[in-house]
Amino acid sequence: MSRDHNSQDALKLTRRTFLVAAGSTTLAACSPSLEGAGLDMSSTGSIRPKISVDAAVTNPATMYASVTEGPFVLPAIPYEKIPREFRRQIVQDPTGEAPGTIVVDLRNHFLYLVQSGGDALRYGVGIGKAGFEWSGRANIQYKREWPTWKPPSEMIARKPELVKWANGQPGGIDNPLGARALYIFKDGVDTGYRIHGSPEWWTIGQNMSSGCVRMINQDVIDLYNRVPGKTTVVVH
Q1: Same domain, 189 and 153
Q2: Which of 91, 168, 196, 206 could crosslink 181 through cysteines, CB 3.0-4.6 Å?
């Protein structure tokens, strides 16, 4: 009887040792798979676990790498110089708007693209200087890749050197509209305001533009690829 009892205890100990060892092996196998995936494991806000492994919104080295499109080469962005809150990231949606809506928070210099399930993609933006802001509810009438920029007459009056572009500056790396532009119309009328890229990534988070919402070129490409025409835009 004593021998059987000792045998059962030994069997229990052996099984327990195996399970503990197996659990340790499983944990050890999971940890390197995340660390080796090239993800930015530091906090970027309220990231939900279900999407925290999407390198398109969590890995700044991927998000802000150099982009080549035909003859145009966008340089990589030195994202370390951009405050973390202004880098592309997933957050809990603070807007209350329907999924698919673009919301520009002028006060905090954020642009949200509302997702289903209570999330939002958030991008840092630069906005207009005092006296140049626009707010309201409108739509993206159409979108353009490498858009032509035509300075309005009042801008040419302020900066006469821009008269050379009175008929439009062709798209390109130095174009003020950057790699993409989304044109904001209200009730079918052009507001004159755009959501667009900018080669001046260091102006993100500031009030620098003539009223438009400017984004890092890599970010505006990401936004452009995610939204269709006629998307609702709320600016406040």
Answers
A1: yes
A2: 196
pLDDT at 225: 95
pLDDT digits (tens, 9 = 90+) for 157-200: 989 999 999 999 999 999 999 999 999 999 999 999 999 999 99
User: CA–CA distance from 94 to each of 110, 217, 231 (Å)?
Assistant: 11, 25, 19
Same domain, 115 and 204: yes
**122 shares a domain with 10:** no
- Supply angle C-alpha 8, 13, 14, rounded to 5: 95
Digit-coded pLDDT (tens) for 58-116: 799 999 999 999 999 999 999 999 999 999 999 999 999 999 999 999 999 999 999 99
Is 46 among the domain residues? Answer: no
42-47: long-range pairs with CB below 8 Å, 24+? 44/84, 44/87, 44/89, 44/90, 45/85, 45/89, 45/90, 45/91, 45/122, 46/91, 46/92, 47/89, 47/90, 47/91
Number of domains in the chain: 2
Q: 30 lies in which domain range? A: 1-36
